[in-house]
Sequence to fold (506 residues):
Amino acid sequence: MRKFYLLLVSLFVSLAGGSGTLRAQFRGDIRMTCKRLDVDRDDSLRLEFEFLIRNRAVNTCQSWTFVPELSTADGKHFRYFPRVVINGRNRRRMTDRRNRLTRRFWSEEQPYQTVNVADEEQTLVDYAAAVPYEEWMGGASLKLQEVLASCGGKRQLLTVALGDRIAFPALEPYVPQVSVVYCEPGPESKQRLVKGEAFLDFQVGRSAILPDFRHNGEELGKIRAVIDRIRRDGDGEITDIFIEGYASPDGNAERNAGLSLARAKALKDYLQRAYALPEGIFRVSSVGEDWSGLRQLVEESDLPDRERVLRIIDGPLTPDGKEQALRATGRTWQRLLTDIFPQLRHVDYQVRYDLRDYTFEESLSVAEHAPEKLSQMELYRIAVSYASDSARYHGFFDRILELYPDDPAANINAAASLLQRGDAAAAERCLDHAAGAIAAPDAAMASAFANNRGAALLLENRLDEAEPLLRRAADAGRAEARRNLEELERKRGDNARLERYRNISQ
Fold:
């Protein structure tokens, strides 16, 4: 908004053709700055002036009235703002006397401010007025109507075209302040699972494990590290160890199936002896020749006959027939023997264990170094102990989602946290993931989902899609959804306002 500065004495003198007679009527001056003419977000047109009235701006029997006017060029639309009146000493007395005698004071619209000037003083008037914005005002300009009343009833009129046009707020859309819902996780079994694979080397045709043979010590160390960590921690108890053996497809398929099972049992016997574990926690199985693993490795390789090998693997031959076809590839078969088949001779293992529950104080400590040991409820209680606008609060909900990526409550809560941070797109992805996992009888979770999905759509300005979801959540008793519906209507009004401003500015 540009500022308009006016030395009113000079204007009157210039209009009088430089007459010294008119100049002598004023012993002071009035300076005015138009500071503001714009539209607020609440659709109020606001006008602000600053009047600096110095010394005796009018003589003792004069009054000077200023009336701001906003009008269109064709004169069809106009709006007057409250006036400012400047009185000389005698004029003030005459006006007071007239008002007391005629009671006109009570029937007239009062000025914004009346200033009674005096020698050696100056007055600063901060003028501020607001009216409801109307569409015609977009093309209007500001004028200042002035009336100088002198002794003997003489009046002089002056119109000063300020040229100021209404400034509209930056076309920044209103961002709804959405209300979100968090779901308290239900009870859960604190069972954990560690998976791995060991590439053990066996003597040809043998199934006994030799810890010092080739790389066996390193491979056995992997699974022993898992068991040692659980046992040493003291908070977990191993409940199940599943071992599954695999073989490469070189040699007789039936013999390889038996060999892969024998090698899986050999690992089970090794662990049982090493840790004195009960027989009942072990489960042992075998796949035999690992053709699916072979296919994946070949597909990722740079074998020269890769497509030919893949066709053989996918073909209708028996396992032994496929082996003979692969042998016929010559040098490619040698590459398979040296580079790929050793990766297929492995034993997979899964160690399942239960963790104890923690008190809140214990959870705070565990969360710092091993959050994976906490249940979702334990992590949730820590999260909500922080301020809802803090980084720690949102960080815990992010961590919960990392640890429980397929849990509907974790996804709904992560979406709520993301919405509070303004990331509607990421929140939508979480809600998409949760959509199919919400149990039909869980009305509380369903209404939380509906509210948060509606809030995400609201932030994305997809109001017609958001409204039925929010109404569903509101009907289910969610106060957050009722607040979001209020925000939705506010957003609709803001959209209409922005559209109106765009049309005016074009």
Residues 479-505 form the longest helix (27 residues).
